[in-house]
Structure formats: structure tokens, C-alpha cells
Amino acid sequence: MIGNVAALRAEVKERQLKLQQEYERTGDACALLRGRSAGVDEVLCKLWTSLDFPATLALAAVGGYGRGELFPSSDIDLLILLPQEACPALQEKLETLIGHFWDIGLEIGHSVRTIQECLEEASNDITVQTALLEARLLTGNEKLFATFEKRLHGNLDPLLFFEAKKLEQQERYLRFNETPFSLEPNCKDSPGGQRDLQVIFWIAKAAGYGGTWHELHQSGILTHEGITLAESCEEFLRHLRIRLHLQAGRREDRLLFDYQNTLAERFGFVSTDARRASEQLMQVYYRNAKAVTLINTILLQNMGAALSPESEQVPQVLDEDFQSVGNLLDIRDEKLFERKPSAIFDSFLAMQESHELHGMTARTLRALWRASDRIGPEFRADPANQAAFIRLFTSPRGVVHEFRRMNQLDILGAYLPNFGRIVGQMQHDLFHVYTVDQHILQVMRNIRRFTMSEFAHEYPLCARVMSEFDQPWLLYIAALFHDIAKGRGGDHSELGTADARVFCEEHRLSTQDTELVVWLVRNHLVMSQVAQKEDLTDPEVISNFSRLVGDLRHLQALYLLTHADIRGTSPKVWNQWKGKLLADLFFQTQHYLEQKEAPAPHGIIAERQAEAMRLLRFFALSDTVHERLWKQLDMVYFLRHSAEEIAWHTRSLHYRIFNNQPVVRARLHQDGEGLQVMVYTQDQPDLFARIVGFFARAGYSIVDAKIHTTAHGYALDSFVVLDIEKRDNNREMVAYIEHELEHRLVHQTPPEAPSAGRLSRQVKHFPIKPEASIRGDERGTHFILSLIAADRPGLLYAVANILAEHHANLHTAKITTLGERAEDVFLISGGDLNESASRIRLETELMDQLKI
């Protein structure tokens, strides 16, 4: 038997290789899948025969193997059907069979059951029931297998099966965040993947509607033109999954960055200066996925209506073009959009205007899908269509739902061709996790939520600002255009500005409204850059930003768009600290605009000192408690720290101004997540590197640092740190940080390098070009060091060590992490920075460290 198993193993390998070579030659995906299935059939039948099983048993293929579709690395699912429970002798023989499965190199998933056990498992688990529905006899007792099939189908309720598969699909969608548009989608299980097509056939088979696209057409479930689209989508996914398995050399259905570029080349895509081959492939994939989700929606709706006749209701006429069927919008004439293209937008307006409508009938969806071809220059130039499109923005409800529906049906891209170009376009900037079109719709969703009372607790400031903003619908238009020029080359903000201006003028927006939308598109990145990269305690920063904004309306609009934009990039990019920075910039700019002139620095300092004194009185401290410490602090300190921080420092240090021992104090952040940490100590070598190394090893990232040296030579440094590991134990860590960091500073232990971490796949495959620049400030006393690099564990520690080696004094550090991208700015002085050659050496060393 051992020799027989070895021969079968060799046969499996040889057949697999021949099938692969034939596929490479002919490109026939179905032949590969059928050939592999037939080859496994033959090998398994030989093995079954060689073990001389009783004639009362049956061996059946189930699942994908039962369909006769066996991908190169897919599992081979088997059912060993018994007439009754196995005796010990048979059990031993079955164990031998299962061992041989693995010996011959097959990835076997098996179950050994009686018919009754199959029925019980099927009734308890929809996945088991689905797999058994596709059972195919390989060898053994035909009568037993026929009885099994008869009883399985006899126990099957097509309507209950339909409802269960819909629920199962909803749960599957939730696992993938309900979007086909993630950057590394699963081409089998993600929405828009192969599973969405398989669901259609499972339900159709259970209901007796057929097992091919043509049979579904004959059953009235699918239109003739739908056959071509469905077959095209299915063929693309077959080729994609086959090539993915062959490239990975194992079962892998995720389109990981590791495989995307090679896959793209296999499909014939070639990289250009503007777009990688992988981006071109993925855009095709996303558009295919969009079509698959639509096919799935329409056909499940058709089958649901056919399976549940009692749900058929008398249509209720809405107007001359539309009616409602149940809670679905329906066209009264199949050819409505052909004879009256303007009704295209009317259908979406009808959805917005009726609270009772929750969707569209299958024939309405099909008609709209076909109607995208009716949207040409003449349609776009029609004032009635332009007015209807603007009404879609101004509706009090359903804005996001209908724009998503228009995108799904290719209506939005047909009406706005520039939007059509970014549908399915990837963004490899390492912090967007959605395609460009999905990001835009996500930003529109966020803006919409700012208007809804049920989300006010989540976005309190945005909700308040939005309630004061007079025309929220203008923000939807700005959101629609803010990234519309991505991927064209050049500055997408400027290119998008031109598109937005043309749109506003063609759609007859007022001069004032046009100016606002255009200004927002041009400047949509500015507020986040100022908030995250500049010193908000510097009056000049606020003054410059206020001059750019000009008035409160522009400030409100930019704040709302910026907040929505950042939150719409990725769940990982947004945090409370970014929210606080944006809010601080908003309030300071609002205050500046209300004053109409820049407040004098001494006025700001006096205000902060007065407020700090007021806060100190709450702790029953005297009015002179601050004097000794404040004598050691200069104007820069008071400009860079808030009144609350000044009071906290004073309360902690007023009685130990000349302390020989380091003082470390930590607390929960007052205005956001994370911790605030204050370090007060006589200056010592490598101080910043010690602190950075400590936080990194403790699992914290530094998001803000204010480094200050007092007049009497003490370091007074403040940090805001976030827990990288999301341990939710910040309160418990306060005592640990105070004790452990203080201990290290007392004993001046050498800086501890953080443990090395792995780079993400995104950084590996879409590297960021590192940048390091040093420029003098306007006063000529300090230098601004700017760094851009792929974020990774230990990056800040390495930078701190290099600065220490050059004896550079660090005054402030602005630490910004955007997804996988680190953008840090340091204010430094001292050492040999005044010499040009020394600055070049420092830049060179930093660049070497930033390179991966």
C-alpha cells in the first residue's frame, strides 16, 4: 500500500503541474478547475478501491469540490456517507484512509456521517447545509447517496434557506467592514468577491431555479444582458484567484500588497510614471466588485420576491413615473429612463423625499444601471438636470445613501466624468484605507453626521459648529471635489479647485457660495497641517492662519471639512489628540477673528498667567506661590504652555525649584486620550534620548513634546503620550511612569533602545521616500529640523541619539503620525549647527537612519 500511496502522490503532483502549464498556455480557467477536480476524483477513487471498503458506503465531494471547481490550493471537502454508525473495524479502516489523504499531498477536509447525522448537522448549521447541497457522488453506494439527496432536499425549505443565506451574507459583510474597497481585499469572501456569486447559485439551486446563468435567465431571475455581465465578472474572479494561488503557492485569497504587482503584470498591466501596475489591476478589481455586489443585490431581490409571493403588494402610485411596491421604489414603465432621461435624478430624489421607501426594486436598479449610458454632454448641460442634481445635496435626508447608490450604479461617475476616473482608485499614502471614491463618500457621511442629533455626543463641537453654519449642503459639494483630482499628477488640491469652479459656475451657484466651495477644495489640507505641524502657542502661527481664513464662515467650513476628512481616511489615523489640536486651532482662530487684530504677546502671557493664578487658588495656594518658579521661566515658556499646564507645573514644582532629584509627574490627559508627563531635572547628557527610549519600551508613542530650559539650567519638559497597545490602563500606568522614569533619571542609566518591531506590509511595498531638512528660523537663533519617513518602532529614539551626538539642544518637538507615515518637526540649536558643513553631516546621518 505504501508504494501505491507514493505513486498516487507523484500522480497528483504531475497532473497539477500539467494543468498549470496548460493554463499558462491557453488561459482557460474553467479547464484548470475542472481538470483539477477530475484528477482528484480519479486519485481518490483509486485510493478508496485499494482499501476495499464495504459496498454499503459512499464517498462524495461537497462544497466547491462538489461543484467541480477546485482551485490550485483550495481545500478538498469530502463526505464519507455511512448506512449506520461505523463498527471498530470500519473505524480503523477509515482512519487509515484519512491518513493516506495527507500522505498523497491533498488538503482534505472530511466528515464521516450517517444520513440522519447529515440532516441534523444541516438543520443546525447553514454552512453545512450549503456544502451538502452541492454534494456529488465519487464512488460507492449509489442508492445510499440517492436517498441522502432525496431526504436533504425534502428537509430543505427554500424560503428559510434564502433568509438564512442573506443573514449569513450580512454577517460576512460585517467582517469586512461592509466594503469591497479595502486596500487588501479578500477576492473570495469580501463583498464583491466570488462568494457573492456563489450565494446566488446556492439559493437558486435550493429553490430549483437552476445552476447556471442561462438557467437563471430561463427562470426569469436574470435578464439576457445580465448573463454577459455576470459571466464576465465570474471569469475575472476565476483568473484572479487561480493566479493568486499559484503565486502564493498555498491557499491565499487575500490580495496582499506582496502579490498585487506581480499579479498585475500577469494580467498584462504595465507601470507608468503616474500609476503602478498594481493600482491599475486593483481599480479593475474594485469596479468588478462593484458590479458583483449589484448583481448579487438584484438577483437576491428577484429570488426573494419569487419565493415569497405573499409579499407581493398592490403598487401604490407616487406620480406619473414612479410607484411603491411594499417599501421599494419602482418605475411604472420599464423604458422610463430611455424616453425620459431626466427621471434618473428624480428616482434618487424620490428616495430622499419618502420616509417609507427603503430601497429600489430589481427592475428599477437594472434600468438605472443601463441608464448611465444616457448621461452625456446634452444631459449634463440641461438646466433641469443640473437643478435636480443640486437638490440631491440640499435634501434634509438621504444625501449619503443616494450618493452611494448613484456611485454603485455608475450614475455619479457618468454625470461627473472626473469622479468616474477615481472610482476604484487606490491611495498608497499609507494612511488612507479606502479607494478615492469611497473616501469621498465617507467624508460626506461624516459631514452628514455632524447635522444629526443622534451623533452629537460623538462630535459635540462639530455638531455645535454645524448648527451655526448656514448652508451645510455646500460642504457636501466641497467634500465631493476635495480629492477628485487624485492620481492625475500635480497638486490635486489645485486641479480639484479648477473642477470645483467649473461645476459651481455650470450649476449656477452664487458668487459667494462658489468662492467658498473653491476655497475649501484648494485649502482642504491646510488646517490639519497647521494643527499637527506648527506651534499653536505661537501668536504668529494663529495670525497667519487667521489671515488665510478671513472670516468665521470660512473657519467653520474648513474646520468641519477637515474633521470629516481626517476621520474619513482610516479608523487608525483619527484620535482624540488630533481632535484636540484641531479644536485648539479653531478656538484660537475664532478668538483672533473676533478681536480683528493680533493680540500682543504680552497680552497673551498676562492672560495665561492670570488664569493660571486663578486655577492655583482652587488648591488653597497663596498668591505668591508662583514667584520663585516663574522668575526662572521666560516668555517662550508662557507662550507655549496653556494656563492649565502652567498651573500644574507650578503646583508640582513651587517648593522644589532647586531640587537635586529629578521630578516626574504624570496624569490623564485633561482634554483627550493618553497621558501628560512632566519631567523636571538638572540637565544631563542624552536626556531626550533617555526619555524617548523609556516611553518606547513602555509601549507609548509621543505625540507632542515641549522642551524647555529654565534660566537656572533645569530641563522642564512636557510630553503627551498615547498607548500603542491600547491596553486601557492609563490610570494604572501613572504611578509606574513616575517611579520608573524618575529612577532612570536619578541613576542616569544609559538610554535604552526600544525593542525592534516589524514594518507593515504597506511600508514594505509602498515605501515612503525619507526626507530630512534643516533650515534657520527667521530670527537666526534656532534651526527647524523637518523629517518625513515611514513610521516604525525606535524611529524617534534613533533621531534623538543622533541629535545628542551632535550636541544639539532640543527646544520643541512636533510629532505627527499619519497612518504609517511619520512627519516630525524639531526646533534645535547649539552644537555646531551654525556651520553649513556640520548641518549637512547631520542631515546625511539622519537620512541614513530614516532609510529602511
From TrEMBL:
- EC numbers, comma separated: 2.7.7.59, 3.1.4.-
Instruction: Give the protein name, as stated in the record.
Output: Bifunctional uridylyltransferase/uridylyl-removing enzyme
Q: Which reaction does it catalyse?
A: [protein-PII]-uridylyl-L-tyrosine + H2O = [protein-PII]-L-tyrosine + UMP + H(+); [protein-PII]-L-tyrosine + UTP = [protein-PII]-uridylyl-L-tyrosine + diphosphate
Q: How is its activity regulated?
A: Uridylyltransferase (UTase) activity is inhibited by glutamine, while glutamine activates uridylyl-removing (UR) activity.
Q: Name one Pfam family in it.
A: NTP_transf_2
Sorted alphabetically, which keywords does the UniProt record give? Answer: Hydrolase, Magnesium, Multifunctional enzyme, Nucleotidyltransferase, Repeat, Transferase
The record's comment on protein family reads: Belongs to the GlnD family.
ACT domain boundaries: 676-755, 784-852
Q: What is known of its domains?
A: Has four distinct domains: an N-terminal nucleotidyltransferase (NT) domain responsible for UTase activity, a central HD domain that encodes UR activity, and two C-terminal ACT domains that seem to have a role in glutamine sensing.
What does this protein's UniProt record list under function?
Modifies, by uridylylation and deuridylylation, the PII regulatory proteins (GlnB and homologs), in response to the nitrogen status of the cell that GlnD senses through the glutamine level. Under low glutamine levels, catalyzes the conversion of the PII proteins and UTP to PII-UMP and PPi, while under higher glutamine levels, GlnD hydrolyzes PII-UMP to PII and UMP (deuridylylation). Thus, controls uridylylation state and activity of the PII proteins, and plays an important role in the regulation of nitrogen metabolism.
Q: List this protein's GO terms for biological process.
A: regulation of nitrogen utilization
PANTHER family, per the entry: BIFUNCTIONAL URIDYLYLTRANSFERASE/URIDYLYL-REMOVING ENZYME, BIFUNCTIONAL URIDYLYLTRANSFERASE_URIDYLYL-REMOVING ENZYME
Region described as Uridylyltransferase: spans on this chain? 1-317
Presence of the UniProt keyword Hydrolase in the record: yes
PROSITE patterns registered for this protein in UniProt = ACT, HD
- Start and end of every HD domain? 436-558
Q: What lineage, starting at the top, does this entry show?
A: Bacteria, Pseudomonadati, Pseudomonadota, Betaproteobacteria, Rhodocyclales
